[in-house]
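[Automated response] Your request has been received and processed.

Submitted sequence:
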Amino acid sequence: MLSQVNDSQHTLRKAHTARSGSSLQCPVNELYYFQDVETYFSEGVQKWREMHCTAHYDIFLSEVSGLVHTFPQLVYHQDTIVQSLQNHLLVPNSTALEPLLDLVVQLVRDLQKDFYPHFHRFFFITTGLLDARDPDQLEWVFTCLSYLFKFLWRLLIKDIHSVYSMYSPLLEHKKEHIRHFAAESFSFLMRKVLLFDCFMLSSSCFGMLFIGFISSGTL
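Generated structure:
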């Protein structure tokens, strides 16, 4: 699935370059320049407003719709937006999971490394949805996680020990498809680690895991 994730082009790429990877470092005059540039998140909100008319999504929309139109707005209100996304992803039997998971991805694309402090919480919330029997829900979750790995891998490999501790329960999960996805996505990160020489296999657990990936053909 990770190999199918492709990064599309967008006018905000200029804003991201100007920010030097961090919205908080962007000079005021550059934020002013981008004040009328629509964000990925705003585009996603509008798309799902037209495609997904459910009560659950409407409630979420009422909380964030006035906060996300421009890039400076999104940066300023990011904590509120993050909290709203997390709250609604935890709603039992939500009918808005597909748009919510997609909007998590759009938020990552906008905030880039500023999103990373929220990654761990989103990871646990999202993987908590994997116990569902609905194949559509599983696909939404896997797609969301795949994009998160694609957009955040540079940060994830610097935090690889923490990431591995998060992954351990998934690698040992009772459901085969969850174990397979965990192995695939973690091997994606391991390839990045090896490619950029950011990590040494210094512990036996990592060494055994890596050997297992090689022997199974995952790497």
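Summary generated for your ticket: Residues 2-162 form one domain. The chain has one domain: 2-162.
If you did not submit this request, please reply to this message.
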